[in-house]
TrEMBL record:
Keyword Cell division: no
Annotated InterPro entries: Aminopeptidase_N-like_N, Aminopeptidase_N-like_N_sf, PepN_Ig-like_sf, Peptidase_M1, Peptidase_M1_dom, Peptidase_M1_pepN, Peptidase_M1_pepN_C, Peptidase_M1_pepN_C_sf
CDD domains per UniProt: M1_APN
Species this protein is from: Methylophaga lonarensis MPL
Gene encoding the protein: pepN
Every Peptidase M1 membrane alanine aminopeptidase domain range: 234-447
Protein name (Swiss-Prot/TrEMBL): Aminopeptidase N
Cofactor: Zn(2+)
């Protein structure tokens, strides 16, 4: 069977059709005779009928397998005693309990989909979430079938000296034919999606961690030998995460060893396989010379995320894939908290919300809109989305806001103790929070079942005679596919009131008899409209609403430029200071887009320049926050604010605004840059990251002045940089400068770093997002470059993905060339790796928001994809949703 074959007819899986498994597995014994071309897998399953099931035949999942033999309780079955389809094995007659032995053959080196067991460079490794285990052996491949695994790995001792699997090492030995074996045992029942193995000739860096109960845990990170000097940060991040999870959630690690393996070919960022986390190499390898601050930050976050899954995902897992956010949303919240505690809480919150608004809000507004707990899917891999992860985290975060930190901790403690070793649902999670806090969260659960981004409308009216502020909050939610009508959500709205001098004003409601001593309070909106009356206000307050972004909603609150500028200067909440600045920029830039469309002279208000100057000059503000406040909204986000997105007008206006700010504030940018551009030994910490971030924002503005001296300054920074953060910041700026210096910079960078795959991906990306007119021509040329492989997901994301998602003015070229390019690449990718192909379709998500000509061109490209023969279920599902009326 060809490894690239797709199911003949995609089938819809529905939440309402869930039923408990008919058979359970107590123990699994697996033996792998590993080889890249052909691996022999022998499985022994001790199974029993599930009293909660509906009976019937025993059905196992299996894809792309060569069946060698089947034995039931020691008796080999003849061909007429079982039935096979392309994806199942059915045993019509089995006893109440039995032992099933199955032997299969698989071909790792043919597996370009990177699901199941596959070959990555010189490494054999697995990826089984969501449904990859069925590509290894016949098995009930669903998360609610949990079993204790014992795994024996056999391989050539010279070729693959490291043999790793889940759990604890149990035994090992040498064989006469030059092979060796290692046996692993995981005492904790787990579903098949958490199974993992790795075989390779790898460098191992070790450390120790002492748990809060005094147990010693061995920590091991495995990488290709040439990357031996890039493990320290991931190892330190792991120890930080282990200690943090004990301190904040009371969760202790439960095996004798915790392993991380870095592989070059991986569909995702990382995978939380019990005790054996497999990481995309880009998400674990770091040194100052090759990784940027953003890389260090991301690695710390992802290492934390995968480790935190040990409890929120592994010890307590999801009953079915509709509950995916049960583990992912909760764990994203945990890794966000971790990153905030390790670094800058304010900047962490800003970055989290910026990503949510830019990506998830767009998903909610498009044809792929779906609830945090979806109702149906064709291919579950398509639902590893920002809605499941980031919006899911916001939903759990709202539970934390409603219950308070202590109440939330009580709820999570109850959840873990009540459901340890079980496969459960989002309802079970919410029930634990309810029971621990004596709350009724029935209405709150609409966040899990209703799609779309609610709109929060805010109106404020002050009565000077009565010294009363009436704050009216209204909510609505637009229709989404399959959900034309929405019921009111529970929306926690954190807010504050400010005096004309910026001081906090009292937050006492007319229903309260005593004053409230707080700068911020949370109002809970449960109806379509509610009015809250604040008393004893001797002056008209300035309202600060949705502090800390307390709910994932869009806010409609009419505020003039002066009010937004005031909040930008005085709000007590760092997030709202940044947000007020962003809203001010958006308000001004959208007005300028209208001016551009009407051929009017562009006018940048002085109030914006004045406020940005104050931010730039204020030494009391965290430089990291200053860098965020000085950064302009992206072209994609500006487009999302328009009924009909005008990419050309947005691009022209954003470029003009940056140039005007650069020219008017040039002296300030120059002063700040010089003060920050001091030689120091690189460290990954909040202080240094903040300084480098602001320094490079200043350099970006200085380059926007068009002054040739700034180009020389940029080149000088690149030449003197001893870290990738400053070097890459310079290269990104040089790529937008036409001329020989640009080509020299790109050539020199590649010549220096061509042997480092992660750095080469950065080189691909800076060219993919170039502002210059030759961007698509260059991207097409890079497809043929030796550094690029269509089989490597990181290469695809770095070049094709970045061009199509983050270079809107060129992707949305009027001639449709960007759309045709993406359609061609998706059809090529679909034959190699359907998951990666389907994810590239996201660039078409908002296709109906553009003008009629561009819509027609995008629809044509989507139709070309839909009309192709033998589409994978992954691509089939998304492209047909995009084209649905």
């Amino acid at each position: 069977m060809n490894i690239a074959e797709a199911p003949a007819q995609p089938q819809i899986t529905r939440l309402d059709d869930y039923r408990a498994p008919d058979y359970l597995i107590d123990t699994v014994s697996l033996e792998f005779e590993l080889d890249a071309s052909e691996t022999r897998v022998s499985s022994k399953l001790k199974m029993r009928r599930n009293p909660e099931g509906q009976g019937g035949p025993c059905i196992l999942n299996g894809e792309y397998l060569t069946l060698v033999s089947i034995a039931l309780d020691g008796k080999t079955l003849a061909g007429n005693e079982y039935q096979r389809t392309t994806d199942t094995l059915l045993l019509p007659q089995v006893p109440a309990s039995f032992e099933l032995e199955v032997v299969t053959l698989i071909h790792p080196d043919q597996n370009t989909a990177l699901e199941g067991l596959y070959h990555s460079g010189a490494i054999l490794c697995t990826q089984c979430e969501a449904e990859g285990f069925r590509r290894i052996t016949y098995y009930p491949d669903r998360p609610d079938v949990m079993a204790v695994f014992t795994v024996t790995l056999i391989a050539d001792a010279k070729k693959w000296p490291m043999l790793l699997a889940n759990g604890n090492r149990q035994a090992s030995g040498e064989m006469e034919d030059g092979r060796h074996w290692v046996r692993w045992h995981d005492p904790h029942p787990k579903p098949s999606y958490l199974f993992a193995l790795v075989a390779g000739d790898l460098y191992c860096q070790q450390d120790q961690f002492t748990t809060m109960s005094g147990r010693q845990v061995l920590l091991e990170i495995y990488v290709d030998p040439e990357n031996h000097n890039k493990c320290d940060h991931a190892l330190n991040s792991l120890k930080q995460a282990m200690r943090w999870d004990e301190d904040v959630y009371g969760r202790e690690y439960d095996l004798d060893v915790f392993m991380i393996v870095a592989v070059n070919d991986f569909n995702m960022g990382a995978m939380e396989n019990k005790g054996l986390n497999i990481f995309n190499a880009a998400c674990v390898l770091a040194s100052p010379e090759t990784a940027t601050d953003a890389d260090f930050y991301t690695i710390q976050s992802i290492v934390g995320h995968e480790y935190f899954h040990n409890w929120s995902g592994n010890r307590v897992t999801c009953r079915d894939w509709f509950q995916l956010s049960l583990k992912e949303g909760f764990t994203v919240l945990r890794d966000q908290q971790f990153s905030a505690d390790m670094n800058s809480a304010a900047v962490q919150r800003i970055d989290d919300v910026d990503q949510l608004r830019s990506m998830q809000f767009a998903e909610d507004a498009g044809p792929m809109a779906h609830p945090v707990r979806p109702d149906s899917y064709i291919e579950i891999s398509n639902f590893y989305t920002v809605t499941i992860y980031e919006k899911g985290a916001e939903v759990v975060g709202m539970l934390k806001t409603l219950t308070g930190p202590e109440g939330f901790r009580k709820g999570t403690d109850l959840y873990f103790s009540r459901h340890d070793g079980q496969a459960v649902t989002t309802d079970d999670f919410v029930k634990a929070i309810e029971d621990a806090n004596q709350l009724d969260l029935t209405q709150f659960k609409r966040w899990y079942s209703q799609a779309g981004t609610p709109v929060l409308i805010v109106e404020a009216h002050y009565d000077a005679d009565k010294q009363v502020l009436e704050l009216t909050l209204r909510q609505s939610c637009p229709a989404t596919p399959g959900q034309p009508e929405k019921q009111p959500f529970v929306i926690p709205v954190a807010m504050g009131l400010l005096s004309s001098s910026g001081a906090s004003l009292p937050l006492q409601l007319d229903t309260e008899t005593s004053a409230v001593d707080a700068e911020t309070r949370v109002l809970t909106l449960t109806e379509q409209s509610q009015t809250f009356r604040f008393i004893h206000l001797t002056e008209e307050p300035v309202v600060s609403v949705l502090r800390g972004f307390s709910a994932p909603v869009k806010v409609k609150f009419e505020r003039d430029n002066e009010t937004l500028a005031f909040l930008m200067a005085h709000d007590r909440d760092s997030f709202n200071r940044w947000d007020a600045g962003q809203q001010l920029l958006i308000q001004i830039m959208l007005r300028m887009v209208e001016q551009y469309q009407s051929d009017k002279t562009l006018d940048l208000p002085e109030i914006l320049l004045d406020r940005l100057q104050h931010v730039l000059d204020d030494p009391s503000i965290d430089p990291a926050l200053v860098a965020r406040m000085l950064s302009l909204p992206s072209e994609n986000y500006l487009a999302a604010q328009m009924t009909i997105a005008d990419v050309d007008a947005i691009h022209a206006v954003r470029k003009y605004v940056k140039q005007q700010i650069a020219q008017r504030l040039k002296a300030g940018f120059n002063t700040r840059y010089q003060a920050l551009n001091q030689a120091q030994v690189y460290e990954f910490n909040a202080s240094q990251m903040a300084q480098r971030s602001l320094k490079n924002v200043c350099l970006g503005y200085l380059m926007a002045t068009g002054d040739p001296m700034q180009t020389q300054r940029c080149l000088k920074q690149m030449k003197q940089a001893d870290n990738m953060t400053d070097l890459l910041a310079g290269l990104r700026l040089m790529v937008d400068q036409p001329g020989p210096e640009r080509e020299h910079a790109l050539r020199a960078f590649y010549e220096q770093w061509q042997h480092d795959r992660q750095v080469v991906d950065k080189w691909l990306t800076v060219q993919a997002v170039s502002d210059l007119p030759d961007a698509l021509f260059r991207v097409k040329a890079l497809l043929k470059h030796p550094a690029f492989s269509m089989k490597n997901p990181n290469n695809v994301r770095a070049l094709i993905g970045q061009f199509c998602r983050n270079n809107p003015v060129h992707f949305h070229a009027k001639d449709g060339s960007g759309y045709r390019f993406l359609a061609e690449q998706i059809l090529l990718l679909d034959k190699l790796n359907p998951q990666v192909a389907a994810r590239q379709l996201g660039a078409f998500n908002s296709w109906r928001r553009y003008d009629a000509e561009r819509q027609a061109l995008m629809k044509k490209s989507l139709s070309d994809i839909a009309g192709a023969q033998d589409l994978s279920a992954d691509v089939y599902e998304i492209v047909n949703k995009y084209l649905a009326d």
